[in-house]
Amino acid sequence: MRTFSLLPALSMLLVLCLASCKSTFLLKENFSGDSVGSDPIKNIPGDPAGDSVSYTSVLSPRLTVQSSTVTTGQKALVFSEASIPGATSFNQWLSFKGIVSDYSQPIWFYWTAKQRASQSDILIDIMGVQGLWVTRFKIRHNGQLVRIIDYATEQTVDVLGTFDPQQVHTIIISLQPTARKYNITVFGLRESNSATRTNLNVLTQPNPSGPVFSFEKPSINFRYLDGGFSAASAYILEGVYITRKKPN
Known about the structure:
Layout: H1 7-24, E1 25-29, E2 52-54, E3 63-67, E4 75-80, E5 94-97, E6 107-116, E7 122-127, E8 133-139, E9 144-148, E10 157-162, E11 169-176, E12 181-189, E13 193-201, E14 219-224, E15 234-243
């Protein structure tokens, strides 16, 4: 009698499962591989292989990894408003870059953070694959979050709400690259705790004045708009992620 072993089939299934699990995240940065008191490691350790944190040496005085004040045993990145010499509009970007992706799959961008004694507005650019500029946000020093509609003048905005500096907030963007549409969900607002926008058009392709980006790598990018104030003022990032799977 001929016998049939399930072992090869099961082995292949396991390989496919592991590959699927590994390919879910395009960027996973919770600062667990960093040392407290140091700059963040540029090449993020662990899966996925190839995601990174990008910043110039000029920006280094503004960056410090600390123990999280939100989750015991975790770490966070302090992005302060400290004064830095040699600053230009191009060398102040703090960028979180995912691994290579493509147009065929939806992508979720999200991060959790907290303002601390802010004095400057912070600009946030979301970049999709193939140079697609998804959206631009501005968090004003008073905690108000706005979506920039007219990037040429930044005079036309959509006010999403205001953050409480005593609490963390989470911003989630889901992108459909082929349709060039995206959705926004924000948690941690004073007014109603959360806000949602759906079926929005991406800004343009590419971003003519934004951070340096890799053509096929999605990214989340942060930059202060005003001059340096104080290291006591900061945007504290608890975790930054880009994934092909909808976050829970």
